Amino acid sequence: MALLAYGGTDSDDTELAPVDMITGPGNIYVTAAKRLCRSRVGIDAEAGPTEIAILADHSADPAHVAADLISQAEHDEMAASVLVTPSVELADATERALATQLESTKHRDRVTTALGGRQTAMVLVDDLDAGVRAVNAYAAEHLEIQTVDAAAVAARIHSAGAIFVGPWSPVSLGDYCAGSNHVLPTAGSARHSSGLSVQTFLRGIHVVEYTEAALKDVTGHVITLATAEDLPAHGEAVRRRFER
User: Is the pLDDT of residue 182 over 90?
Assistant: First the structure.
């Protein structure tokens, strides 16, 4: 990471220039290194442990919900697997399904630790509206919608890294096949950030070009605003262009 940010010399004395942008996921140490480098180079995000939130109602299959929660808990002991539902019956059935599926999952110890961590929860809400508010506030990296009319519910979500709509769209699909980017905002940063895309590598440069007549037309406005800010030299830089 330091080589990318600061450059260096290769073993054959080739000079390696520093880069302008560092992107991509990694473990907690990669994230810490990106944080240290971000004052020198741009980074995509400080990606933390993976997260899945599932907003589900009575129509969801608890075996599918449990499998999806386990799939992300498999990543890391600090992974967050959160079920948000107004259905006590679904929550209870999912808990039973988790216990059953944990018996056969390969990384049982890691998954069990993640599912038992403070970052993981089953959240009971009064109704689906409350569930929508909850997942928008949480702003998960991955959000599954397993409800009646899932597309309509998904349209109400404004904070999530990626949304997986309906019972046939598990997060694993996004990880390996669907084409959505796998580098997504975590730790609530989906409230203000997006996943990695080509936009990450693009910059906007503002270009200003006035004619003499156009500048003269706004001279008074510039001088007035500069005077109001007690920065008279700003206004003077415009006024002097029209001295005769």
Answer: no
Domain boundaries, the chain: 2-43, 51-194, 212-242
Q: Which of 51, 64, 75, 141 is catalytic?
A: 141
Whole-number Å distance between alpha carbons of 15 and 188: 39
Which tokens sit at 14? 């080739």
The reply to whether 58 belongs to the active site is: no
Mean pLDDT of 186-194: 92
In degrees, to the nearest 5, what angle opens at C-alpha 201 toward C-alphas 26 and 44? 30
Active site residue 75: no
Q: Which of the following is catalytic: 51, 64, 75, 142?
A: 142
Residue whose C-alpha is closest to residue 135's, from 85, 75, 74: 85
Please tell me the pTM assigned to this model.
Answer: 0.85
pLDDT of 5 reads 94
Alpha-helical (H) ranges within the chain are 2-6, 28-37, 62-73, 88-102, 108-115, 128-138, 150-154, 171-176, 212-228, 232-239
Is the pLDDT confidence value at 47 over 90? no
- Judge: domain 51-194, CATH 2.60.120.260: no
